[in-house]
Amino acid sequence: MSSRHDTGWDRIYHRYPSKCLPWELGQPRGVLVELLDSGRVVPCKTLDLCCGAGTNPVYLAKQGFDVTALDISDKAVKYTKEKVRKAGVEMNLLVGDFVNLPFRREEFDFTFDFGCFHHVEANNRTAFIKGVCRVLKPQGTYSLVCFSYKNGPAWNHFTKEQIFELFEDYFEIERIKHISSLEADQITRYFYEVLMKRLVDQRS
């Protein structure tokens, strides 16, 4: 009988050291650092979706945020736990499904999502977006970074128009811009950085 470690993201984290994964840069993402430096997000109760090896949530915790970090892979969460221990910070860590978030309604002020949404299967996107909306407080902030169409055609490479269509019923999009990043595999990839506020009155 095969284990859950034989499939999907869990298989990747169990098969390869974190330093070999192209999205693990070993330092917090520039978009997150810039967001905090700008003062648009201040220490608050925060959810890091698909936390990976934990660099971003540990950075947030060091800045005084009350962080909950979630990943579908227990190995990724184990990497994060080790970073938390070395950094001497505290954090709530969970292994869980990003489509069915195991949190109370309006539990968080801020959600950071680097690379989670663009791996949600198309038929689960609405459920994912509703889930993020549900766990955020009204006017809570959602920072999304997802693949751009500039990487070439693919089911999860988005245009600006697609992002607006997907999110506008649940969030007010305050900022959307293209960014590029030289990833750990030395390939430059393109992303949309989207800063949103949860709508108080959502359209169904």
Can you describe what's shown?
28% of the residues lie in helices and 28% in strands. Strand 2, helix 4 (74-87) and strand 3 form a beta-alpha-beta unit. The longest helix has 14 residues, at 74-87. With 204 residues, it is of the alpha/beta class. It is globular, with a radius of gyration of 16 Å. The protein has one domain (4-198): 3-Layer(aba) Sandwich (Rossmann fold), CATH 3.40.50.150. It has helices at 8-15, 30-38, 55-62, 74-87, 125-135, 160-167, and strands at residues 45-49, 66-71, 92-95, 108-114, 136-147, 171-182, 188-198.
Using brief descriptors, characterize the structure shown.
204 residues; alpha/beta; Rossmann fold; seven-stranded mixed beta sheet; 28% helix
Q: Compute the CA-based radius of gyration.
A: 16 Å
CATH topology (level 3) name: Rossmann fold
Q: Spans of 5+ residues with little confidence (pLDDT < 50)?
A: none
What structural class do you assign from the helix and strand content? alpha/beta
Order of helices and strands: HHEHEHEEHEHEE
Biggest sheet details: 7 strands, mixed
Instruction: Report strand %.
Output: 25-35%
Q: Which architecture does the CATH hierarchy give at level 2? A: 3-Layer(aba) Sandwich
Fourth-tier CATH superfamily name = Vaccinia Virus protein VP39
| Overall number of domains | 1
- Tell me how many strands there are: 7
- The backbone outline, from C-alpha atoms, is globular
Distance between the termini: 43 Å
Order of strands, main sheet, comes to: 3-2-1-4-5-7-6
Output mean pLDDT.
90
Query: Count of helices?
Result: 6
Helical percent range?
25-40%
User: Any idea of the CATH class?
Assistant: Alpha Beta
